[in-house]
Amino acid sequence: MVKKQLEPRGIIDSRVLKAMLTVPRHLFLESDVAPFAYEDCPLPIANNQTISQPYIVAYMTELATISPKAKVLEIGTGSGYQAAILGLLAKEVYTIEFFPELARKASNLLQQLGYNNIQIKAGDGYQGWSEHAPYDAILVTAAPDHIPQPLIDQLAINGKMIIPVGNWSQSLILLTKTPHGIVENRMLPVCFVPLIRKLV
Ligand code: SAH
């Protein structure tokens, strides 16, 4: 996976490549799709959700430039795979999953695998997780139709947010909170599951 999919497509950060080599992706999948764990594609997980394609996980992680001292927030825990990658790179990882059963499953698995710097909660990621803010990086792995203001508010100065935005046609946006304001760069066309919004 690393030699055939990630390096040829330009992933060069050695810490990211090492994390992608270390986390056993097959353990984050149901047994029927586990044989395809190292293929170049997203795969189904429970609750009609998906684990992202390895390249996209690596690309988003590389864009976030995560230091060993970083505090990171992920929205959309899903299987817990992206959180595990972040857990190897950052000091602390907080991750929010809408479906309680997915949150519970990911939490059990990450604990079993010995990741003890990752905290998971079930809830609405649109609101972020203000208790632990500010975050050096925020990775959003489900697509809203606009960038949630609470997430911008919870980003540290010089922090980076990587977020897919749009309905059927989405762009992966790199948002940087500079001391002089917000800078947004459109990086790639992508296809993520939608960020679920509760009707209020
Ligand atoms: N990062 C995941 C892939 C997640 S797919 C992995 O590595 O496996 C996107 C996830 O976002 C799904 O599990 C979905 O349930 C979750 N999600 C969707 N809307 C959400 C919301 N409002 N808050 C938190 N999680 C949400």
Describe the structure.
The chain has 200 residues and is of the alpha/beta class. The protein has one domain (2-190): Vaccinia Virus protein VP39 (Rossmann fold, 3-Layer(aba) Sandwich). 26% of the residues lie in helices and 29% in strands. The protein has 6 helices and 9 strands, in the order H-H-E-E-H-E-H-E-H-E-E-H-E-E-E. The strands form 2 sheets. Strands 5-4-3-6-7-8-9 form a 7-stranded mixed beta sheet. Strands 1-2 form a two-stranded antiparallel sheet. Helix 5 (100-112) links the parallel strand 4 and strand 5 (118-122). Helix 2 packs across helix 4 (81-89). The longest helix is centred in the middle third of the chain and has 13 residues, at 100-112. The protein is globular and about 45 Å long. The N and C termini lie far apart (43 Å). The relative contact order is 0.13. Bound molecules: S-adenosyl-L-homocysteine (SAH).
- How many structural domains are formed by the residues? 1
Approximately how much beta-strand content do the residues carry?
A: 25-35%
What's the number of helices?
6
Strand order of the largest sheet: 5-4-3-6-7-8-9
Mean pLDDT over all positions: 97
**Ligands and ions found:** S-adenosyl-L-homocysteine
What is the level 1 CATH name?
Answer: Alpha Beta
Low-confidence stretches: none
Tell me the radius of gyration: 15 Å
Coarse morphology: globular
Considering the protein shown, what is the CATH homologous superfamily?
A: Vaccinia Virus protein VP39
